[in-house]
User: Which sequence fits this backbone?
């Protein structure tokens, strides 16, 4: 992220030196102001969802949901405990239903539980990030709303292709991450002991 | 479909609150706790979104985004993505609001039911703001090295965009 941030920021600024140097600083302030506005909005959304989640937790609903999906999450996220898998399930469910505001705090909590204390993301954390970054939404409500507002004859006709496209990208993500993990792993595991056959002929 | 999704959230919240109330969960306390937790969460998330938004704003305003669009247009055309959608594909992983603005422009320019607008809608609907997810989700952890998370996510988003364009020609 450090590299990406550096390259993007500095190359943009360099480009602005030639085109419009006076706008560089205002643009940075615009970005930061946008972040403040977004943070306030997020604070409101998180406040509501964390509250609803607290009720759900006290009712044992999140645990029940986590248990129902555990065959899948256990396979995908090997080595994570039940509580973490419950959070992962809830995050996926919230994303799936288009409740992005609810998904984020759950995802953050799940990530906290998956870290191994080092600066490097674990394989499970990366898998979780990739699944979240490729989106798993059932109904893209915002886009459907935009189309309806623009007078589309059938604003909902993008739902099925969207669902298929996001399925493609998410499954591809899981396959790529799992492949990268399995390519890297054999080196770490100790080789199985080889019987010393040659010893007999000494 | 839109009406249905409008009902979903309030009904869901009513259900959770009602079940909670009758099973003697202190619903009011839960809301106080939630609001309190949210403050802490936003405080730890804010520095990250601030840094990302400064960078993405510069990226858009400087014209670098437009330059990159021109540069990558032939590659995208080769992958089956029409050049009118290149800007959208590039902005999408960087900024949620930015990509909605680009999509609105496309809808206004080509008409809501045109191939370009439908394709753009699918691209936005089937993907996520990759940079935002990758920064916010690790914001409260010690993790600073995302290893291959970002390239894999971006690659899969591009794959999703290619699939979107293909699906829109079929459906």
Assistant:
């Amino acid at each position: 992220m450090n590299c990406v941030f550096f390259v993007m920021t500095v190359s943009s600024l360099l480009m602005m030196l030639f085109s419009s140097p006076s706008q560089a600083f205002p643009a940075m302030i615009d970005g930061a102001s946008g972040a403040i506005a977004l943070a306030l909005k997020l604070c409101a959304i998180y406040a509501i969802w964390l509250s609803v989640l607290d009720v759900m937790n006290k009712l044992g609903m999140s645990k029940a949901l986590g248990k129902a999906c555990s065959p899948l999450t256990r396979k995908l996220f090997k080595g994570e405990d039940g509580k973490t898998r419950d959070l992962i399930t809830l995050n996926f469910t919230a994303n799936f239903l288009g409740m992005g505001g609810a998904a984020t705090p759950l995802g953050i909590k799940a990530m906290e539980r998956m870290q191994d204390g080092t600066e490097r993301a674990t394989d499970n954390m990366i898998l979780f990030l990739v699944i979240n970054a490729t989106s798993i939404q059932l109904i893209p409500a915002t886009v459907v709303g935009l189309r309806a507002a623009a007078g589309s004859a059938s604003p909902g006709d993008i739902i099925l292709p969207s669902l298929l496209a996001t399925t493609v990208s998410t499954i591809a993500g899981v396959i790529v991450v799992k492949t990268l993990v399995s390519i890297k792993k054999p080196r770490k595991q100790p080789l199985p002991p080889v019987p010393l056959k040659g010893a007999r002929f000494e | 479909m839109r009406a249905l999704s409008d009902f979903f959230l309030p009904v869901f919240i009513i259900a959770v609150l009602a079940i909670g109330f009758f099973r003697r969960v202190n619903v009011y306390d839960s809301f106080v706790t939630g609001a309190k937790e949210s403050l802490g969460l936003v405080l730890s998330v804010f520095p990250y979104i601030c840094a990302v938004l400064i960078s993405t704003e510069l990226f858009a305003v400087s014209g670098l985004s437009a330059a990159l669009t021109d540069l990558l247009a032939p590659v995208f055309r080769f992958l089956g993505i029409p050049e009118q959608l290149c800007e959208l594909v590039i902005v999408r992983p960087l900024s949620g609001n930015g990509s909605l603005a680009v999509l609105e422009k496309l809808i206004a320019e080509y008409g809501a039911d045109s191939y370009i607008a439908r394709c753009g809608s699918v691209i936005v609907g089937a993907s996520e703001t990759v940079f935002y997810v990758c920064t916010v989700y690790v914001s409260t952890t010690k993790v600073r090295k995302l290893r291959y998370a970002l390239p894999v996510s971006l690659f899969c988003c591009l794959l999703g965009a290619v699939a979107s364009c293909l699906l829109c020609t079929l459906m």
User: Anything to note?
Assistant: The radius of gyration of chain B is 20 Å.
